[in-house]
Write a structure and sequence with these properties.
9-stranded mixed beta sheet, 367 residues, alpha+beta, Peroxisomal Thiolase, Chain A, domain 1, single chain
Length: 367
């Protein structure tokens, strides 16, 4: 199964990480332990900026999240946040879907037979899958699936489903699109695990077109990718360390300080098992496409796999420029690799981590 096109999109509004930190400090005693901890976490996050559909803080005008005195923060209801999600998610999906179609040589919108959308930051029905078909003027007979609430690793189940579809029907062409508006749910907090979450999450969308067709001749600076194998593993006794719940004022994200260490302990065996099934050793991997869930996650996973610091330059670059955009982020990492002149026959190992704690992995060949 081949990835014929990768495209990404972010909202136009971006905030420097230190600006977001100052926003989250509002209403807190700056000398308190949580405030000092927040400043330390933001300063060492490895993130330079994050994009958001929230424009209030950039314009300085009263809005959904900023009060009329332009200093106090509002706490919108989950319904109000979800209403904003409904509008913004649709627009961002349309944008990234159009970009993916424009980048797919030899494929037209009339070739798309299936659409799979992914999101965990909002709900509406008809859903993102329905509107993506309509907004891209795809056939009304296009088969649709929406994958919701699987968190940062959800692009992998979507790609795995796309692979199964193309294996069952060699003529199938699947558009997979992820959209996450995480910042709609960020809010000031003094809870340590939630402070970590507010320091990481951002908004973005990514799309890829998947088909069993061999790619046509393309620009050699942007090689196609072939998905060779997948694996899924649930880490033991870790379901409370990464979780989403729906609160009255948005979704509550818990990202425990234990997550990086849990991944460090479990990822090496997961990676080695996937490689062994394909007849490879860890030394055969040329590129590591690891979901940049946070600086500590990249550091600990890299240490667990005995990787050189430079091996994770691409995930660190994505984290620095965009933050953690949940399910869309791993596709940003893959696109960044494509832009760095991959060589034919190179091997890539991709990893993403989600609630559970779930580890999704994929073995990818450059073609």
């Amino acid at each position: 199964m081949y990835l014929h096109a990768l495209a990404t999109a972010v909202p136009p509004t971006a905030y420097a990480q230190e600006v977001i930190g100052q926003i989250m400090l509002r209403g807190m005693d700056p000398k308190s332990k949580p405030a000092r901890l927040l400043q330390r976490i933001y300063a060492h996050s490895g993130i330079a900026q994050r994009h958001s559909v929230i424009t209030d803080y950039a314009t300085g005008a009263e809005g959904l999240f900023l009060d009329s005195d332009l200093h106090s923060l509002k706490s919108p209801s989950t319904s109000q946040r979800n209403e904003r999600y409904t509008t913004e998610a649709r627009a961002l999906l349309r944008d990234v879907g159009q970009r993916a179609l424009a980048r797919a040589p030899g494929l037209e919108r009339g070739d798309i037979t299936h659409v799979i959308t992914v999101s965990c930051t909002g709900f509406f029905a008809p859903g993102p899958d329905f509107y993506l078909v309509r907004d891209l003027d795809l056939s009304p007979a296009t088969k649709r699936v929406h994958i919701g609430f699987m968190g940062c690793c959800a692009a992998f189940p979507a790609l795995r489903l796309a692979r199964d579809i193309t294996l069952a029907d060699s003529a199938a062409v699947v558009l997979v699109a992820c959209v996450e508006l995480c910042t709609l749910h960020l809010q000031p907090t003094e809870n340590i695990d939630k402070i970590i979450a507010t320091s990481l999450f951002a908004d973005g969308a990514a799309a890829v077109i998947v088909s069993a067709r061999e790619p046509e001749a393309e620009d050699p600076t942007r090689r196609a990718l072939r998905l060779d194998a997948f694996a899924t593993t649930i880490s033991p006794d870790s379901e409370q360390d990464m979780a989403w719940t729906i609160g009255d004022h948005g979704f509550d994200m818990v990202l425990s300080t234990y997550v990086p260490r849990i991944l460090q302990a479990n990822v090496p065996a997961i990676v080695d098992a996937l490689l062994a099934e394909s007849g490879h050793l860890r030394t055969a991997v040329d590129h590591w496409a690891i979901h940049p869930g946070g600086k500590a996650i990249l550091d600990k996973v890299g240490a667990g796999l005995d990787l050189d610091v430079e091996a994770l330059d691409v995930p660190r670059h994505v984290l620095r420029q965009y933050g953690n955009m949940s399910s869309a982020t791993i596709l940003f990492v893959l696109e960044e690799f494509q832009q760095r002149r991959l060589e034919r026959s190179e091997l890539m190992l991709a990893l993403a981590f989600g609630p559970g704690l779930t580890v999704e992995s994929a073995l990818i060949s450059v073609v």
